[in-house]
Each structure stands twice: as structure tokens, then as C-alpha cells.
Specification:
The protein is of the alpha+beta class. It has a single domain (8-387), classed as Orthogonal Bundle (Cytochrome p450), CATH 1.10.630.10. The chain contains 16 helices and ten strands. Helix 8 runs antiparallel to helix 12 (219-250) and helix 12 crosses helix 13.
């Protein structure tokens, strides 16, 4: 059975400090399927082999994403329940419901004006950089990556900043598993206000397009689609930017190649999506019945979590030079592929390029190394302090 032997906790600071060491140990001991705890008393199976992950993600009949049977056995105060519980969204649905929600999201995102999005990133980035470029130091997570992605998300969804701020605070609580229930309530309340606001004030934005889509989403469905988009844009986009900046600034070879032009920012982003993806462990499914996979029996209705980070490090898909390699699972797979890849790349690349152009002599100010937020799902820094020669604001 998948739960034979001691379970490895994914929620501890020790795991967050060096997860790849733990993934290597997992692979040596368990090969592809690892018994883990997502929180105290919340068992799951973690998939750490790329081929097995692909098999599971393509088998929607045996591995549906609907968690409702599982969550019946979870206490109300379970810290990971708010992020795992059933919602009327593609990532938690099957069959016709999945197709309906997926089509609405894909259509709403497909019409994003990429030229307008690039302008929005620049309009947000320039004053943010100007606020700290003369000081000689900054926390790029708090002072740049977060406010920039927060502003981009508000622009994409047509959301007034005061509503978006409440959503952001709730998202942080959910991903960390601290006050997760309260975070969930904050998000739902704020997004219900956004839906009401956009019905009265439609615009050229994702929220308005969702409201007008032929799927005819009701109020609850709209709220949950927006919560999913906010989670991806704020929490994950800022982590993609911050983790890529960390790579560029910490690795002299990568940083010199990016600044010198021999390595593109897009290549650096893909390296991060392989090595430190913003969502390290996710793409959760729940087997309909006990099923044998790779000589391991998986229990019915217990979470099967794809370790995106571990699968990306599977020796069978790794290459010495990762440039141009798109085999990572960080954007999902098949019908669970993220529909926002193009705008996500654009925002991250533009944000990083603008910052590096403005402060090319920037250096990390992390004498004790990076500090990572604990949690079973994300790969997220607590801060990204840097120092640089003070310079005049951008014009």
C-alpha cells in the first residue's frame, strides 16, 4: 500500500529549507510513489517520477480531480482544506462541469491584450523601481514582485485595488495554512463584491468576459473562477518573478549570461520552472477506487499529489543544458494545462528585464542564504533583499 512506512511531512520548515534533498531521498527509497503528510494527520501520496505523473494526469477516468468524497472525512479546521476543498472550478471538477468552467476561463484569458498588458507592467514597474533605486537597497519580493503582480492582477480582472488587497491577504493565509479558513472567507467576500461591481461597471477585462460567456456562470461560480485566477496571478506569478531573480543574482554564470545577452530571460524563467517552480507540489487527484500504479496500491479517495519539482528533476528527462527544454510539468499537462502561460511569461519577463536594465549592478544581500516559506504546495521566498549603487529614478 502507498501508506506503508513512515510518512514524510511536507509542511515543515526543514522540508522548505532543502526540498530537493528530500526528493532525492524519496526517489531512492520509494522510486515513484511516496507516503507523505500535507499537514498533521492529512495523508497523501506524492508522485516523484515524471512518467508516472504523466500517466496519472492523462487518466481522468481513474484519477478525477473532484475532492468531495475525501473532504467529508476532514475536520473543519484542517489547515490545507481551504486550498484543496471542492470548488466549482476546472481544477476541482470532472466531466461536463469541467468542460464548462474550462471553456469560460480559456476564452476569457485568450482575449487578453498582450500589448496592453506589456504597457501595464511597465507603468507599474517604473514607479516601483523609482521608489527604491535611490536608496541602495530593497526587498524585491515586498517592494517589487508582490505589488507589481498585485497591480497586474487588478488590471487583468478590472478590480478596484481596495478589493484586490483583501483577496491578496486571504490568498497568503490560505497558501501558508495559517488562518486558512479566515483567508478563505476574506477571499469569497471580496470577490462577491467584485462580481457585483463588474455587473454594473463592465469593461475590457477578464471578469467582464467571464460574466458574458455562454457558460452563464452564476454568482458562486464567478466568485470561484476569480479566486482561482487571483491565486495564480498573485501568489504564483510573484514567486516566478522572485525565484527567477534569485537564480539570476545567485548564480554568476546565469546572471552574467542574462546580463550579457547570451541567455534570455525566458531561458532563466524555464530553468526556474524546472528547479524551483512556484507551485512545487500540486495537480491533485483522488482515485475513484483502489488502484495499482507502479507496483503500489493507491487507496480510494486519498489525495495523489504530483510533485512538479521532483518530477522535473527525474533523471529520465533532465539534460545537461536545459535551454529550450519544455518537458517540465510546471504549467500542468493536457486538459489541465494552465491557459495563462503566454501572459504569465510576458509579465515575468518584462518585470525582470525592466529591473535588470535599471539596476544592472544589483547584488543579493542574503549572508545566510535564502529563507523559504513553509507549506506543502508552494516554493516561495520570505524575502529577497538586494543592494546596489544608488541611481536616479527611471524616466
Amino acid at each position: 500500500m502507498a501508506d506503508d512506512g513512515p510518512r514524510i511531512p511536507l509542511y515543515t520548515p526543514e522540508f522548505a529549507d532543502d526540498p530537493h534533498r528530500v526528493y532525492r531521498q524519496m526517489r531512492r527509497r520509494h522510486r515513484s510513489m511516496v507516503p507523505v503528510d500535507l499537514a498533521p494527520g492529512v495523508p497523501a501520496t506524492l508522485v516523484v517520477e515524471h512518467g508516472v505523473a504523466v500517466r496519472i494526469l492523462n487518466d481522468h477516468e481513474h484519477f478525477p480531480a473532484d475532492p468531495r468524497t475525501w473532504q467529508k472525512g476532514m475536520p473543519a479546521d484542517c489547515p490545507v482544506l481551504p486550498i484543496m476543498e471542492w470548488r466549482p472550478v476546472p481544477a476541482r471538477s470532472t466531466g461536463e462541469a469541467f468542460r464548462r468552467y474550462r471553456s469560460a476561463n480559456v476564452a476569457a484569458l485568450a482575449d487578453v491584450d498582450l500589448h496592453g498588458l506589456r504597457r501595464a507592467v511597465e507603468e507599474l514597474a517604473v514607479p516601483l523601481i523609482g521608489a527604491f533605486c535611490g536608496t541602495g537597497s530593497a526587498d524585491l519580493l515586498l517592494e517589487y514582485a508582490f505589488p507589481l503582480t498585485f497591480g497586474v492582477c487588478n488590471a487583468l480582472l478590472g478590480c478596484p485595488p481596495e478589493i484586490g488587497q483583501r483577496v491578496s491577504a486571504g490568498m497568503a493565509a490560505m497558501f501558508e495554512g495559517v488562518y486558512a479558513g479566515e483567508g478563505n472567507r476574506m477571499i469569497n467576500s471580496a470577490l462577491a463584491e467584485l462580481v457585483s461591481y463588474k455587473r454594473s461597471n463592465p469593461g475590457d477585462d477578464v471578469t467582464t468576459r467571464l460574466l458574458k460567456h455562454e457558460a452563464q456562470l452564476d454568482e458562486e461560480e464567478m466568485t470561484h473562477q476569480l479566486a482561482g485566477l487571483y491565486g495564480a496571478v498573485i501568489e504564483l506569478q510573484q514567486n516566478l518573478i522572485a525565484n527567477t531573480l534569485l537564480l539570476i543574482l545567485a548564480d554568476d554564470q546565469v546572471g552574467g549570461s542574462v546580463l550579457g545577452g547570451s541567455l534570455s530571460t525566458r531561458d532563466a524563467l524555464d530553468e526556474v520552472l524546472f528547479d524551483n517552480p512556484p507551485m512545487a507540489n500540486f495537480l491533485i487527484t483522488y482515485p475513484r477506487q483502489p488502484i495499482l500504479i507502479d507496483d503500489v496500491w493507491l487507496p480510494a479517495h486519498q489525495p495523489v499529489v504530483i510533485s512538479i519539482a521532483a518530477c522535473n528533476h527525474d533523471p529520465t528527462i533532465r539534460a545537461e543544458d536545459q535551454r529550450g527544454n519544455r518537458s517540465h510539468l510546471s504549467w500542468g499537462l493536457g486538459q489541465r494545462t494552465c491557459p495563462a502561460q503566454t501572459p504569465a511569461y510576458l509579465v515575468a519577463q518584462e518585470a525582470i528585464d525592466l529591473l535588470l536594465d535599471a539596476l544592472p549592478e544589483m547584488e543579493l544581500d542574503l549572508p545566510e542564504g535564502p529563507d523559504w516559506r513553509p507549506g506543502p504546495f508552494h516554493r516561495s521566498l520570505t524575502a529577497l533583499p538586494v543592494k546596489f549603487p544608488p541611481s536616479p529614478p527611471l524616466r
